[in-house]
Automatic annotation (TrEMBL), chain A:
<keyword id="KW-0813">Transport</keyword>
<dbReference type="Pfam" id="PF12399">
    <property type="entry name" value="BCA_ABC_TP_C"/>
</dbReference>
<keyword id="KW-0547">Nucleotide-binding</keyword>
<dbReference type="GO" id="GO:0005886">
    <property type="term" value="C:plasma membrane"/>
</dbReference>
<dbReference type="InterPro" id="IPR027417">
    <property type="entry name" value="P-loop_NTPase"/>
</dbReference>
<protein>
    <submittedName>
        <fullName>ABC transporter ATP-binding protein</fullName>
    </submittedName>
</protein>
<dbReference type="InterPro" id="IPR051120">
    <property type="entry name" value="ABC_AA/LPS_Transport"/>
</dbReference>
<dbReference type="Pfam" id="PF00005">
    <property type="entry name" value="ABC_tran"/>
</dbReference>
<dbReference type="InterPro" id="IPR003439">
    <property type="entry name" value="ABC_transporter-like_ATP-bd"/>
</dbReference>
Automatic annotation (TrEMBL), chain B:
<feature type="transmembrane region" description="Helical">
    <location>
        <begin position="81"/>
        <end position="102"/>
    </location>
</feature>
<feature type="transmembrane region" description="Helical">
    <location>
        <begin position="204"/>
        <end position="223"/>
    </location>
</feature>
<keyword id="KW-0812">Transmembrane</keyword>
<feature type="transmembrane region" description="Helical">
    <location>
        <begin position="243"/>
        <end position="266"/>
    </location>
</feature>
<protein>
    <submittedName>
        <fullName>Branched-chain amino acid ABC transporter permease</fullName>
    </submittedName>
</protein>
<feature type="transmembrane region" description="Helical">
    <location>
        <begin position="6"/>
        <end position="28"/>
    </location>
</feature>
<feature type="transmembrane region" description="Helical">
    <location>
        <begin position="35"/>
        <end position="61"/>
    </location>
</feature>
<dbReference type="GO" id="GO:0015658">
    <property type="term" value="F:branched-chain amino acid transmembrane transporter activity"/>
</dbReference>
<keyword id="KW-0472">Membrane</keyword>
Amino acid sequence: MAAVLRARGLAKEFRGFRAVDDVDLDVPEGGVHALVGPNGAGKTTLFNLLTGFLRPTAGRVTFGEHELSGRPPERIARLGVARSFQITSLFAQLTAREHVELALQGGTGLGWRFWRSDKRLGRFGDRARDLLAQVRLADLADTRAGALSYGHKRALELALALALDPKVLLLDEPTAGMGAEDVDATVELIGRVRDGRTVVLVEHNMNVVASLADKVTVLQSGRVLAEGPYAEIRRDPRVVAAYLGDADATD
Amino acid sequence: MILRRLAARPVLLAAGLLVALALPWLIYPPVAMDMVCWALFAVAVDLLLGFTGLLSFGHAAFWGSSAYLTGLIALHSGLPFPVAVLGGALAAAVLAVPIGWLSVRRTGIYFAMVTLAFAQLVYFVANQWRGLTGGENGLQGIPRDFFGVDLSDPFFFYYAGLPIAVLGLWFAWRVVRSPFGRVLVAVRDNPARARALGYPVDRYKLLAFVLSAGLSGLAGGLFTMGHGFVSLEEVYWTTSGQVVMMVVLGGIGTLWGGVLGAVLIVELGDYLSTAGFEETGIVTGTVFALTVLVFRRGIWGTAAWLTAGRRERAADGATVPVGERENGEPVRA
């Protein structure tokens, strides 16, 4: 399978500490690629490097023919690589519907029209309702993000990334802190939206990884420890020692 | 949001306009004109402080440069006064492009300091370039031309100038309630998230900065016309400080709060100086300190909070720590 997102020799150093160290990554087109590893393995740093929120100390990232390293996050988002955030990251004063409208309006240039009424954003109403229904937030469309519960914020986070209709969707722990029922709904949703796009997933919940991922990359101390299909990975003794053993014990 | 509630209450809008129209009957007309100018200035600064999350401490540069340019146009061209004011406003907006471009990359206290530094630079130029600005003497005897209509009476000039300020206020409201205004709130609340949604945050900040500067220039030009002279005080840092004080007193992020703050500060200053008390700074400073310490939402913000429903209040309260993160900027009520 051709790689749609590719990293070569990617490294990020923070004052002498190598959070990501010489990582090669090939994300196959159309699949779900999970990044796993113990806390501090460099998963989120890797995410930030792929999406332009951090500049790599060394190495490069390419998306199809596009060179991504060195580009600002907003350009990368426009090219079709969208992300969600691990720590819920929303606009406290805007309602759920306004969030989705904001994401939908991004590509249209409407955001510059300071002389126009914001009622024009109503044109995204149908699409926004549709996306909110997908993540089961239809009833909370007019609630401000600051007043949403944690689970609902996570769902909105997902709706925002989906609203960009990206070719590659990077989800940073989409089920973190969710109850079992919400986890199932989220897995089901990701399973549905993966059609026609590529999903990269940072995830701690191994059941989620098992049911979604076609390919798993295990990171440890900023380096790739192992890579392959989930069934293979979970039998890898290095991986079991580093991570899965613990996770299985707590699950 | 407060604005949404305001739109639902045309009564408030009508009352505001009525007060604005009655003002020169109630108080000394030149003071009424000052109030209107400072009100527009405060709203322009709130556009940046309350709706973009940037505390500028250098807006005297835009108010003042427009004050000078408006004065120069009126002195040397004989054009009608609204044209001179618009020319000044445009010049302020143009000046804001390089200053904003260099400033918006910074946030919080650094942004405030960079804007202050640029404003001091403008002050320095105004002070040194005596041939143009008159230095410490300022520009004197600026005429109010308007197609031969005699506007020398401040009472009549008030009604000639008011529509310009109202247009400016309407423009600020339009910006806040536009697709652009929506993006600004997103940029203010969570710049990283806005970038992830594909918005070039710095460029949005820059446009907000330029629009705010242009409106400040409109206010400064009108102020010049109201007084018939320009002094160095218009580009001095105390002017930048005074307008921030008005916004904080009225309520950051409330847009119309700045109008109340301006009216109160101008009235207070006028009252004290009429009473022969010169050190107005002590009094306004105390008022400012009390506002920051005791009711941080400001007048408008507190009123809105008191009239808001309980649910809304809870949602609002939940957001306060979020708005306060990283830059330590005050949050809107």
